[in-house]
């Protein structure tokens, strides 16, 4: 299974990527009203207002929860969509507090998410991101037949459970460089509550430094 960690380091281009996580536990919080939504509408609107291309990695559960939003994002020329497994369980043991997909179920899990995305997005990519960025040789071997390419964590944005937007901005600005793939989150809610507030200063500052924002597909072109 191929892996992309970053783009060419000789060009001032950066790919902003956003993961839309949804786990069984998160869906339960939606159902009981603890969380209103796991779609950060303000974040998406900021990206549109700023005309920032982005690559979005969606879990199967998220797409099932928000099929109309998925179609809407797919139809927006700013965005390209990839997959992020079905229910955000990890593909190695001891990956944060995520559960683990059993080895015999790994390929089925990823293919399930790909099938859902293909049904909602006629332009779906085969970009894929491992939950938590956790993988090993076993996972790469098992997922090879899925035909996806893993996109790594060159610059983790650290917006998950962040306490303020300032820490996110500092993390991204302090580590982004030519060819970086920045990882942030699309779902907002209680898991990533400040991403929308951080994105405007991130984009503004990096553009002021001369960086161009592109999708992962554009970043990886020769």
From TrEMBL:
For this protein, the record's SUPFAM superfamilies field holds: Glycoside hydrolase/deacetylase
* Boundaries of every NodB homology domain copy: 12-214
Highest taxon in the source lineage:
Bacteria
Q: Which PROSITE patterns match?
A: NODB
> PANTHER family attached here?
GLYCOSYL TRANSFERASE-RELATED, SECRETED PROTEIN
Q: What is this protein called?
A: Polysaccharide deacetylase family protein
């Amino acid at each position: 299974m191929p892996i992309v960690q970053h783009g060419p380091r000789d060009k001032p281009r950066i790919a902003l990527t956003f993961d839309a996580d949804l786990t069984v536990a998160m869906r339960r919080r939606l159902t009981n009203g603890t969380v209103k939504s796991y779609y950060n509408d303000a974040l998406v609107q900021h990206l549109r207002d700023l005309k920032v291309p982005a690559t979005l990695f969606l879990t199967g559960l998220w797409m099932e929860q928000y099929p109309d939003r998925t179609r809407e994002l797919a139809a927006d020329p700013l965005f390209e969509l990839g997959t992020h497994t079905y229910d955000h369980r990890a593909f190695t043991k001891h990956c944060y507090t995520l559960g683990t997909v059993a080895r015999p179920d790994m390929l089925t899990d990823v293919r399930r998410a790909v099938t859902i995305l293909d049904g909602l997005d006629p332009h779906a990519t085969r970009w894929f991101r491992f939950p938590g960025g956790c993988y090993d040789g076993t996972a790469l071997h098992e997922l090879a037949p899925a035909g996806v390419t893993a996109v790594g964590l060159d610059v983790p944005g650290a917006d998950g459970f962040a306490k303020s937007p300032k820490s996110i901005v500092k993390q991204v600005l302090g580590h982004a460089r030519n060819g970086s793939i920045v990882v942030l989150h699309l779902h907002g809610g209680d898991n990533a509550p400040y991403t929308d507030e951080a994105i405007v200063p991130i984009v503004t500052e990096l553009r002021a430094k001369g960086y161009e924002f592109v999708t992962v597909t554009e970043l990886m072109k020769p």
